[in-house]
């Protein structure tokens, strides 16, 4: 009888543990929904010239996040950059990470933050969709579909 | 009532008479006429004389520039498309690459064609580029190469505008409203 009880107890513990594990495992997935993007687009240049990726990232969660990297199967190398204009001289600076406070948003937009997308894995045409994954410090990942647009578009 | 007379007269004088003001930065008389000897998209040596007769815009950049250069060129292209058909055809935009090591004639042609028929790619050796950038008191420079051999290039962000005689007229910045650029290009085309 005791064995049966213990058996039941252990199965109960397992169930409880399973639920607990599930609860622990789920929040990052749910939390990812608190990170959203808008207007994700790639301004494509001809040939294999580096292209620029733009989007607006919104953090609707309660916790601050840090964007630490970007990855895409369509490009051999993706970097976060920022264009700066100092006394009429334009230059680009690499950006290691960007903090985004709870409730805030940040725009990757022309002449500011942008993704520098290099070494195309395959030729890309204007109008195609490309997946790019944003990597966060807490190991969350957000895969975003970018639309490729003409370089002549503003 | 008398105190209103003078301001009203002054504003009438400003708006009604005389020539309309440029809306972007007027550099008439401050910068020398357009002069250069460079290599074009076909690999031919060309000088500024080849571009006389039409209004000409000059911008320094490089093709491995995914953000600033295309944004400036796209803005110019958008402004040009708002001009009447004949003026559109007349406009010339010279994209001078200050990165000749990577920007060969073919790359330049592909790059400028993406923005419209008015866009022409030019480049040259250090001596030719130094002469032209010094002439317009702008600078350019190269960043250190990364592990992949990529490097960034700093360049002037403004656009110089010349009338059909190659005389310097305007400095157009990305901060100028598009309407101001359109109005000034219109006027530049009629400025002989």
Your description of this structure?
The complex is a heterodimer of chains A (about 150) and B (about 190). Chain A is built from one helix and ten strands; from the N terminus they run αββββββββββ. With about 150 residues, chain A is of the alpha+beta class. Chain A folds into two domains: about 1-30; about 35-150, PCu(A)C copper chaperone (Immunoglobulin-like). The radius of gyration of chain A is 22 Å and the shape is globular. Chain A starts with a helix and ends in a 5-residue tail after the last strand. Chain B has a six-stranded mixed β-sheet with strand order 1-10-9-4-5-6. Chain B has a two-stranded antiparallel ribbon with strand order 2-3. Chain B has a two-stranded antiparallel ribbon with strand order 7-8. Chains A and B meet through β4, β5 and β8 of A and α2, α4 and β8 of B. β5 of chain A pairs antiparallel with β8 (about 155) of chain B, so a sheet runs across the interface.
């Amino acid at each position: 009888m005791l064995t049966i009880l213990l058996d039941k107890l252990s199965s109960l513990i397992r169930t409880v543990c399973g639920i607990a594990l599930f609860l622990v495992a789920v929040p990052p997935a749910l939390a990812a929904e608190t990170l959203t993007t808008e207007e994700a687009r790639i301004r494509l240049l001809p040939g294999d010239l580096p292209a620029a990726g733009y989007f607006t990232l919104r953090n609707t969660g309660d916790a601050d996040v840090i964007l630490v990297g970007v990855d895409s199967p369509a490009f051999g190398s993706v970097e976060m950059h920022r264009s700066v204009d100092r006394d009429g001289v334009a230059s680009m600076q690499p950006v290691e990470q960007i903090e985004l406070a709870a409730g805030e948003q940040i725009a990757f937009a022309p002449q500011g933050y942008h993704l520098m997308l290099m070494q195309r894995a395959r030729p890309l045409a204007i109008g195609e969709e490309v997946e790019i994954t944003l990597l966060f410090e807490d190991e969350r990942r957000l895969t975003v579909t970018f639309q490729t647009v003409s370089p002549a578009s503003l | 009532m008398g105190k209103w007379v003078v301001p009203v007269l002054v504003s009438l004088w400003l708006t009604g008479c005389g020539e309309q003001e440029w809306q972007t930065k007027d550099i008439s008389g401050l910068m020398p006429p357009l002069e250069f000897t460079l290599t074009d998209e076909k690999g031919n040596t060309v000088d500024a004389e080849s571009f006389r007769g039409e209004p000409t815009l000059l911008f320094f950049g490089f093709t491995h520039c995914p953000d600033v250069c295309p944004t400036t060129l796209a803005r110019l292209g958008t402004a040009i498309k708002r001009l009447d058909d004949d003026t559109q055809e007349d406009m010339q935009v010279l994209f001078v690459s200050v990165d000749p090591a990577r920007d060969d004639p073919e790359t330049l042609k592909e790059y400028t064609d993406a923005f419209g028929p008015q866009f022409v790619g030019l480049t040259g050796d250090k001596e030719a580029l130094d002469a032209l950038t010094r002439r317009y008191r702008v600078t350019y420079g190269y960043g250190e190469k990364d592990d992949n051999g990529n490097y960034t290039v700093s360049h002037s962000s403004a656009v110089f505008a010349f009338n059909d005689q190659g005389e310097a007229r305007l400095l157009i910045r990305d901060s100028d409203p598009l309407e101001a650029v359109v109005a000034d290009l219109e006027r530049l085309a009629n400025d002989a």
